[in-house]
Amino acid sequence: MTASVASADSLARGTAAFHRGDYVRAFHELSPAADRGNARALGMLGFMYEHGFGVPQAYAAAADLYYRGAMQGDPFAQAMLGLSYDKGHGVPTDFLLAYKWLNLAAARTGGRQRDAYLRFRDAVASKLSTYEIIAGQRFALEWVPDRQAPDVHLTVK
Predict the structure, then answer these.
(1) What would the pLDDT profile of 10-25 be if each residue is shown by its tens digit?
(2) Cα-atom radius of gyration of the chain, to the nearest Å?
(3) Are 41 and 33 in contact (CB under 8 A)?
(4) The pTM is what?
(5) Are 120 and 24 in contact (CB under 8 A)?
(6) Beta carbons within 10 angstroms of residue 65's beta carbon
(7) Which residues have a Cβ under 8 Å from the Cβ of 38 and sit 6 or more positions away?
(8) Which of 76, 83, 90, 146 is most deeply buried (CB count within 10 A of its CB)?
(9) Cβ neighbours of 56 (radius 10 Å)
(10) Contact between residue 104 and residue 76 where contact means Cβ atoms under 8 Å apart
């Protein structure tokens, strides 16, 4: 079995366990995929840490996982990172970065998920000036996914 097939199987099992509410099993299944840099697994583990599902609640760990998944282009991780910046969970409160990540997430997905991300983005936009919104849009337009997911340390709040 190749590493990518093993990662996909681990992700599928972890996702299924998460949706059943078996968070301990989800953590054990998603962790190897996240260790291999799977963006979706990183986002899901971030969510588990943010909310304390099967792991101790840890905003800084959640933000780091979201960041690593977001940098690879995962819309869920991007949206959750945006909300982390909006709330100041694990990162400093920064509405401009919140707007950027939520804008990217909405642009990279569709359907109800896109609608939700747009509502979140627009709620953040209500906290920004017109010039800040323009800057946030520019930041989103200039962003390029990093498939390497560098080891970048976020400022922990």
Answers:
(1) 899 999 999 999 999 9
(2) 15
(3) yes
(4) 0.87
(5) no
(6) 26
(7) 7, 11
(8) 90
(9) 7
(10) no
Distance, CA of 79 to CA of 104 (rounded, Å): 8
pLDDT tens by residue, 42-87: 999 999 999 999 999 999 999 999 999 999 999 999 999 999 999 9
End-to-end Cα distance, the chain: 41
Alpha carbon 111 to chain centroid, angstroms? 18
- Tell me the two tokens of residue 78: 């991007």
Residue 74 CA to residue 145 CA, distance in Å, equals 9
